[in-house]
């Protein structure tokens, strides 16, 4: 039976790959993102789109109203929106502490607030039983990210997901987290990666290759399936073994 699937950050990369995987099953997919033009170009059969800044409570209320009118019930919610802040305006200051405050605020807004606000806005519409809530974390939550801000923001999703799993479990709803490693063909790095850095990241894996959006999408698809109905409050790492070292 077709399900209603809501995917934030659904216009590119992992979100788009996940949308295509669910749409291939005949599911009704709603793509969310800040850039209307990107959502409109996404090639997902039959998908609905809605442009909104998911870190803005007012905008998220608009999403909730749209979902109520167009979908009613949400079977699968994929919280994929996020990023390291590379695509955001830099701090308009030279004060080092203000720069730190700006970077940390941006990362928590992009990665935590977007997920929490959307989930809280739609939690009463989650299918009971059978609903699925999924969050995108990162290998950085385990290994750090260089600045700490992005890694800390992704790590913050874990306890929220665990709390949510306990709260929603009695309704027959599962909540899980997927933590990718290095994934190519996304906008995460803001452009092509330096070849030496790419080689170094691939060398950290046991599989000898970079991840793809499809790798992550298929993991999300499986966690949303009936076969994963007794899996909840888990963080599934998809990084070719890089988190363990090679």
UniProtKB/TrEMBL annotation:
GO terms for biological process: fatty acid elongation. It holds the Pfam family adh_short_C2. CDD domains: SDR_c. One of its GO terms (molecular function) is oxidoreductase activity, acting on the CH-OH group of donors, NAD or NADP as acceptor. Residues 3-205 form the Ketoreductase domain. PROSITE patterns: ADH_SHORT. InterPro entries: KR_dom, NAD(P)-bd_dom_sf, Sc_DH/Rdtase_CS, SDR_fam. Belongs to the short-chain dehydrogenases/reductases (SDR) family. This is Oxidoreductase. It comes from Streptomyces colonosanans.
